[in-house]
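Record type: ASSEMBLY
Status: queued
Input:
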Amino acid sequence: MSRLQEKLSRGEFTVTGEIGPPKGTNIDPVIHEAGEYLKGSVTAVNVTDIQTAVMRASSLVGCVKLKEKGIEPVLQMVCRDRNRLALQSDLLSAAILGIENVLSITGDHVVAGDHKGAMPVYDLDSVGLLQAMAKLESGTDMGLDNKGAPNALDGSPKFFKGCVVTPCAEDVEPQVIKLAKKAEAGAQFVQTQAVYDPKAFEKFINLVKQYKIKIPILVGIVMLKNAGMANYMNNFVPGVQVPKEITKRLKETDKKEVPKVSAQICGQLIRDMKGMCQGAHLMTLGWDRYVPDIVAAAGL
Amino acid sequence: MLLTEAKPVGEVLNLIGADKSVFLLGCGGCPVGAQTGGEEKLAGLKAELEKAGKKVTGSMVVDFLCNKALVGSRFFAPARAAQLREASRVAVVSCGVGVQSAAAILGKPVVPALNTISTNAVQGLWPSEERCGQCGDCMLGMTGGVCPITTCSKSLVNGTCGGTNKGKCEVSPEKDCGWLMIYKRLKALGRTDDLRKMNAPRDHSKSDIPDRLRKSVHWALEYSKAEEPPKQATA
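Status: finished
Output:
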């Protein structure tokens, strides 16, 4: 059992972090930073999978590098780039490499990235990918042999299966309905898109209860690097609304003090929502060195 | 011409579910040529549904179901409108465009009776925004008659992704989110439960035209007759 699963099943408030592999072969700096600042502060670290459809090194290699540093990884898997053959193959590879935490994500469309002419695959959706994981765990794959029987695996994996949700989307019910399907497909934990509005999050949590979804939820916390980023998120990032007060506070802060204030904002958000969820997922977008500050500000 | 194939009756009945009354709507265009629709096929489906204990409140073939104005105008007659009102479901014998066009204007949950495999070169009339993805495994019966294969940029089958933004798709602020359209349609029909149903990953092999259909495409029925070997006279 992974440490992440262990802590969540004990009901401990759990914090995860996130890194992105480089565009290029120079992976050491990001792994070094993770070792310096994330290792002591979070339980596990997500490695993004060709995030926002901008071509990079794989999540799998980032996970292996984290493990070498003694950091527990969460393998992110998007459905955009691989069909069911490649996804299942990579799931087996991950298990062989000792990776247990896997996160199923639909994945941003290719037009969001830097290879706009690429073919968007989505052979499986995020629900189908969770079903594929469960199937592999049961000892067969998604295919059939010549007689129409399931193919038996020579050794089957065991995962801690995660999924994502956008809790502050304008239309939140379809998000929750899909989350219910993900739980039904075998998801065991949830990491959410960024939340800046505890009231909207409460509304989401109430709907989650109404739909009888019982898996642990880690609220998504994205560090704001300046007021401009807050405006950008409001305009262009689906389902994310930064309240005016936060933007105003960042705008009025001296540039040198912004990271400190931003970490305080994140800490306060975690304090406000701690009672409603089972953990927090910190996305610092390269500002890994402030993770310990956030954890301290959250009083964890 | 559109290439369509009848769904197994069991699947159609499954989609109708517990509902008792059904109105049958057929397209008099391409499906007649493909020999999957028209008056005769509608009569056949009617008999099957009645055998299964369903009440068929009415049945009608419209020249081209892909033309919404044409479809709507055929329900102006009070007797037809009453038959439609009485039905809980509308079973549609047409390609995916016809199913979507009927769903868009009739305000009733639709059930596709056919799978659309290919739109080939000639696509009948195509006057409006509904598109068929030729997936060969029509799921319009579970999506309020809005096609997730063509309206969702990612052709997702189990609901919206995180990229939906104020009703629009992450791909473009001008593009409606397909799954939100489905959600709104199902909500208006009081059928959001349909969203909870798990849909299996798509079987992409179903969108390949099977050999028997590739060889028997006949737009003109005369043409098919000319192709038939002359019958031997029997004594």
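Annotation: Chain A has a mean pLDDT of 97.
Annotation: The beta strands of chain A are 14-19, 44-47, 73-78, 101-105, 140-144, 150-152, 160-165, 189-194, 217-222, 279-283.
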